[in-house]
Structure formats: C-alpha cells, structure tokens
Amino acid sequence: MNCVDMRARLRAAERLVGVFVNLPAPGLVELLASAGVDFVVIDCEHGLLNPESVGGLIRAAGASGIGAMIRVPAGEPAAIQRYVDAGA
After folding, report:
1. Which of 45, 50, 59, 60 is nearest to 83 (CA)?
2. d(CA 84, CA 88)
3. Which residues contact 44 (CB under 8 A, 6 or more apart)?
4. What's the pLDDT tens digit per position in 3-58?
5. How buried is 39 (Cβ within 10 angstroms: 0-12 exposed, 13-18 middle, 19+ buried)?
6. Which DSSP symbol is given to 22?
7. What is the three-class DSSP state of 76?
8. How buried is residue 68: exposed, middle or buried, by Cβ count under 10 Å (0-12/13-18/19+)?
9. Which residues contact 20 (CB under 8 A, 6 or more apart)?
10. Are 77 and 44 in contact (CB under 8 A)?
C-alpha cells in the first residue's frame, strides 16, 4: 500500500492498523505484514535506526504491500533530507 492508498482509506473512514518499528530488522516488517498490519511507523527518534538502516525497512514494507512512515529524530530540513535520501 502506498501513501495515496492509505489516505484514501483514511478518508473513507476505514480502520487501519499500524505498528511502530524501532529495530533494524526488515524481516520483522515482513512478519508484521503477514500478520495483517496495514502500515509501519519506522521510529528513528527512539531506537537503533538511522538513515543508513531505514532503507531495508522501507523496501520490506513496499515488497510486503504495506505502507511505511518515518518518524524522524528532528524537524530540521537537513535531518529530514537524510531520510528522504534513504528512500522515505
């Protein structure tokens, strides 16, 4: 599911289930997708994640058909850009 699909489902008042992930484990994202979650929030504010480790999580979410959102550690444009460059 991409962001457009998530927005459309939210506008239609559908219930979406998501989980915060703060470990650099793409297999965990795939497992969550197979358990039926609709999206993951990749939490870079708290945990072990950084721009270098989120790429695999984003790819795992996309390949599994679920959405992915990134929670960045700071709201500065330079910090956000590092995660955008990683694939967010």
Report:
1. 50
2. 5
3. 22, 50, 51, 54, 70, 71, 72, 73, 83
4. 668 888 889 999 999 999 999 999 999 999 999 999 999 999 887 898 888 999 99
5. buried
6. -
7. coil
8. buried
9. 40, 41, 43, 71
10. no
Write out the two tokens for 43: 């939490």
Residue with tokens 């694939």: 87
Catalytic residue (choose from 5, 46, 52, 84):
46
Half-sphere exposure of 83 (CA within 13 A, CB side): 22
Catalytic residue at 49? no
Radius of gyration of the chain (CA): 13
pTM of the entire structure? 0.86
* Token pair 């700071």 in the structure block, residue: 74
Q: Strands of 67-71's sheet, edge to edge? A: 18-21, 39-43, 67-71
